[in-house]
Hints:
This protein is an alpha/beta fold. The chain contains 17 helices and 13 strands. The protein has helices spanning 16-33, 45-48, 68-90, 102-114, 134-141, 152-157, 170-173, 180-186, 204-224, 239-247, 262-268, 278-285, 298-307, 315-320, 335-351, 353-370, 374-387, and strands at 7-14, 36-43, 53-57, 95-99, 118-122, 144-147, 163-165, 195-199, 229-234, 255-259, 271-275, 290-294, 327-329. The protein has a seven-stranded parallel sheet, with helices on both faces. Helix 3 (68-90) packs parallel to helix 4.
Amino acid sequence: MLTAKETLNAALVAGETSGDLLAGLLLDGMKQRWPELHSAGIGGPQMVKRGFEAWWPHDKLSVHGFGWEVLRRYREIVGIRSQLRSRLLINKPDVFIGVDVPDFNLDLEAALKQQGIKTVHFVCPSVWAWRADRLEKIKRSVDHVLCIFPFEPELLARHGIAATYVGHPLANVIPMQPDRAQARAKLGLSLDDRVVAILPGSRESEIRHLASGFFQAAALIKRAHPATKFIVPAIPALKHQIEAAAASSGLGDALQLMDGQSHAALAACDVTLIASGTATLEAALFKRPMVISYRKGWLDWQITQRKRLQPWVGLPNILCGEFVVPELLQDVATPQALAKEVLIWLDAPQSDPAKMQRLEHRFATLHAELQRDTSTLAADAIAHVLQT
């Protein structure tokens, strides 16, 4: 039981860079509501900055797909989950909050809920896009879901799952009108430069499948427009792999590889060539045109295709309900096709300015739809769960 309204003992698990960012913003709201907050579990640097005690680093859970990578890491990840479950059942927290990584968190949440621990899941699993069979598992596992998209609570309610729309935290972090001049100055770029941001993903498997093709496409773009500059925000842990993929591209001084700074890159660029994932939503919030791409191993791709429920994979297209930006996936994602689509966007301000205006307006509308006081709404929902 809580000894006072100011005290809360919370366990959290966040995986990957995006989950660490979301959890960090959530902890801000929780700290305001419960000044004597103690939080621990699995997390990354953004959480640690808020006083979180990381028993394991978040990148231990950074695995994706169904193929060899998962099999190779399976024993380690299951072992971590088993140790964490035992630790939390010995010293029970007031609430457990699983931030994304549903393959890891839902089973853990089910075990904790069965033992009387309140469980909250932050970020509804994408049951509206694929794997609708997860709905029953969510119902068994969690007391409440914090949703970042406005259509999700109604969907979950139809299946008897309590949920609250809290908005998307990134919509508050990213300004409605990004300062491109400031971003370019920060990165040593001029306002007259034609700039392409290349974001090949934040996982090792994504770099392996996407980076080489992205840089080959960049070389073709440079051939068509020699003055084009390319900026690549890289997660430090993956920087050496990205450097290796870029080495044979022949881009030379036209390529600027940076440690992180993805938001500066998206604010500064004219267009981004980007891996499908949370970064595509960030690009939309920066009102940037993009070409979304993704490639997987053959087995992963076949399984994913059978479970897909929508024609889109990119979050901007899913949220807009149409192909507002192109998606080039798997075998279609050739360097030639990627370069062609990027060049269309690069030329659009001169060749089709109305197209650019329509995209910017649509993304501004989306931004407004996602803007809420996420930290406070999430903390309020958690408090309600604790009172029931």
